[in-house]
Specification:
CATH topology of chain B: Alpha-Beta Plaits
Radius of gyration of chain A: 35 Å
Number of strands of chain B: 4
Shape of chain B: globular
CATH architecture of chain B: 2-Layer Sandwich
CATH superfamily of one domain in chain A: Calcium-transporting ATPase, cytoplasmic domain N
Strand content of chain A: 15-25%
Oligomer: heterodimer
Strand order of the largest sheet of chain A: 10-22-21-20-11-18-19
Helix content of chain A: 40-55%
Structural class of chain A: alpha+beta
């Protein structure tokens, strides 16, 4: 508790004790007034003072004024205990509210506590501890085990395990060694590192992320805008309602005291605080919780859109697949798989083509240059080489055409790039090299469907055959292959036109050269963005690593957050509405009305905090 | 130019909304957010410094105890 809150607590306790004591003093009529005025002023002087001051400033409909009016009215009507009690309740509620909000703010701030406080910079052979902002590009910093990485840089000396959880939500540590890139915001776990700084603090990963998350609340969700508008009209409406309630029925039946008393109850419920605090807090909590999982959401509005995700469009390469080639199938004819791979790898050993690299990786042994001679590249077909003195051909179907009686056979249906191999004029089989589907992709797609996504679409620049095969394997609803970057925008336009009225279209790409599509979609998601400024810039939602399951997590976080927001709106409006009605027909006391006001606010805040809890 | 200031003792969310409305009505203010949760005031204007006295007035008018850290 802050000092201010402690002081308030003391005032509440004293006023409460005096109120109870006053109850037992045997005085009658007006004599009781001074007795109750003491606790009234102890608990309410600041409210009264603020009310007077604010009227002088032309701020009429503020809660201090309304509370003052309600309680002074009660005093005039002779309901002394009620006046003190209402003020007391109000202050208890305010105290609790400020405590709850303070706590929530703190826990969200802690979540985003990735800002490094100091950097140990090496200057003239000495190590100085300075503010990270003072370190310049090219300087050397020292990071001890257990310290946060203060600035982006390249490792000069040492090796260590790095905890990137604050940035990616990934709990398994990553290893770095000399020459490795290091991002600020991570934590150095095991070894001492010397690092050459490559970016100023203002441009560093940690500063960018903090800036993004802090500014996220400026992009308001529809629900937030609704509340702002609502708050503008709610208070005046209730106040005029109270005025009408005090005057109109009284003119009819002349029971002024009763109707004014009921009208005062109205005033107590007239602050829209529960909504005004809890709705932004829910979004803030959702954004904070997501950022802990390595999902950066750039505004409450995107959280809102994400919750209604109906169509998810994926780029293939780098998103659904790893974007790197690897041997997917080996079909030997008359030799062993190992032999086939060995010959293919050796024949291709001098090539730097990705396909040759993946063949060598699949064989897994060191290529001995002594075993290979006379390598000739046949443009557009493959290579010819002498391996251990045997003539080996490795390449596409055209290269095999010289073999007597050779047919493409089973390989024609293969997905990916096919490398046929022949030795001494005899066909010995083929190897398929293809882009690999990420291990996490199938589960991520299933999770998305479970989270309510109606349709998944894949767009790719790759060939029809590859696109269809990947789409079929993953169970994607719609596949569009052979697209140029411009075609992707057209496809997204078509999908946008076909979506349902409350559905949103989400596009997921790796952020490289799909900026136009990212911005055209309702929500553009860039993944694997750690260290890629362009992607962070272009997208609305950024997944810090390339794990697609984060997308499903983002959707469910968004859903949960929006559910909480709706709960709070409905709950607060229902309770307030109920008490307005009860107050008007004389069924609600002022005490109950105070609960309706501050109690609802506190419950809504506590509910909003659930948005922060992300599994 | 965009500038961010820290607010101390910004106690009520509804007040933050009122401050924001008042500041947005000032001449020369392009954009303004008063964020109750981060307790921060962000202003975009051609010359923020020159506007600050008027901004302080808006803040004080709504919540006299609230301070802007300059």
């Amino acid at each position: 508790m802050t000092k201010k809150q402690k002081k308030m607590l003391a005032r509440i306790l004293i006023a409460g004790a005096l109120l109870i004591a006053a109850h037992f003093v045997p005085l009658e009529g007006l004599w009781r007034l001074p007795l109750y005025l003491i606790p009234y002023f102890i608990i309410g002087w600041d409210v009264l003072w603020k009310a007077i001051r604010n009227i002088a400033h032309g701020q009429v409909f503020d809660e201090n004024f309304l509370m003052s009016l309600a309680t002074v009215g009660a005093l005039v009507l002779g309901e002394y205990a009620e006046a003190v009690g209402v003020m007391l309740f109000y202050q208890v509620g305010e105290l609790f509210q400020s405590y709850a909000v303070g706590k929530s703010r703190q826990s969200i701030a802690q979540l985003m506590d990735i800002r490094p406080d100091t950097a140990n910079v090496e200057r003239d052979g000495e190590i100085e501890e300075v503010d990270p902002e003072e370190v310049e590009i090219g300087e050397t910093i020292v990071i001890r085990p257990g310290e946060k990485v203060p600035l982006d840089g390249v490792v000069l000396e040492g090796s260590s395990a790095i905890d990137t959880a604050a940035l990616t939500g990934e709990s398994a540590p990553r290893d770095v060694a000399v020459g490795g890139e290091l991002l600020s915001g991570c934590v150095n776990l095991t070894g001492l590192l010397k690092v050459r700084v490559t970016k100023e603090f203002g441009q560093s990963t940690v500063a960018k992320i903090l800036d993004l998350v802090e500014n996220a609340s400026s992009k308001k969700a529809k629900a937030e805008n609704f509340i702002t508008k609502f708050a503008r009209y709610y208070t005046p409406a209730v106040v005029f309602g109270a005025l009408a309630l005090a005057i109109i029925p009284s003119l009819v039946d002349g029971r002024w005291q009763m109707w004014v008393g009921r009208a005062l109850t109205f005033l107590v419920i007239s602050c829209p605080c529960a909504l005004v605090i809890s709705i932004p807090l829910s979004f803030f909590g959702g954004i904070g919780g997501a950022s802990r999982k390595g999902i950066l959401v750039k505004g409450g509005n995107y959280l809102e859109l994400l919750a209604d995700a109906g169509i998810v469009v994926f780029d293939k390469t780098g998103t659904l697949t790893k974007g790197t080639f690897a041997v997917s199938e080996v079909h030997p004819v008359g030799v062993s798989e190992g032999e086939l791979l060995e010959l293919a790898a050796l024949a291709e050993q001098h090539s730097s083509h990705p396909i040759a690299q993946s063949l060598r990786a699949a064989w897994g042994k060191e290529c001995d240059p002594e075993r290979v001679a006379d390598v000739t590249e046949v443009a557009g077909q493959g290579v010819k080489a002498l391996v251990d003195g045997r003539e080996v051909l490795a390449g596409n179907a055209k290269l095999m055409a010289s073999l007597p009686g050779w047919t493409n056979g089973a390989a024609a249906a293969a997905v990916g790039t096919v490398v046929h191999v022949a030795a001494e004029g005899k066909y010995i089989g083929y190897v398929t090299v293809a882009d690999q589907i990420k291990e996490t992709t199938p589960k991520a797609l299933a999770d998305l469907k479970a989270a309510g996504v109606r349709k998944t679409v894949m767009l790719t620049g790759d060939s029809e055959a590859v696109g269809r095969a990947v789409g079929a394997k993953l169970g994607i609803d719609e596949v569009h292959a052979g697209l140029l970057p411009g075609d992707k925008v057209d496809q997204v336009e078509k999908l946008l036109a076909s979506k349902g009225p409350r559905e949103q279209l989400v596009f997921v790409g790796d952020g490289i050269n799909d900026a136009p599509v990212l911005s055209r979609a309702d929500v553009g998601v860039a993944m694997g963005a750690l260290g890629s400024d362009a992607a962070i810039e272009a997208a609305d939602v950024v997944l810090m690593d390339d794990d697609l399951s984060k997308l499903a997590a983002a959707v469910s976080i968004a859903r949960k957050c929006l559910r909480i927001v709706r709960e709070n709106i409905v709950f607060a409006l229902a309770v307030k509405g109920l008490f307005l009605v009860l107050g008007a027909i004389g069924r609600s006391t002022m005490w109950m009305a105070v609960f309706a006001d501050v109690g609802v606010a506190v419950i809504a805040i506590l509910n909003a905090m659930r948005a922060l809890n992300v599994k | 130019m965009k500038k961010t200031y820290k607010l101390i003792d910004l106690d009520c969310a509804n007040c933050a909304r009122k401050m924001q409305d008042a500041i947005l009505k000032l001449d020369g203010v392009e954009d303004c957010t008063v964020n109750f949760l981060t307790q921060k005031l962000t202003i975009t204007a051609a010359d923020v410094e020159a506007l600050m006295p008027a901004v302080v007035k808006c803040v004080k008018k709504v919540e006299p105890d609230c301070e802007i850290v300059m």
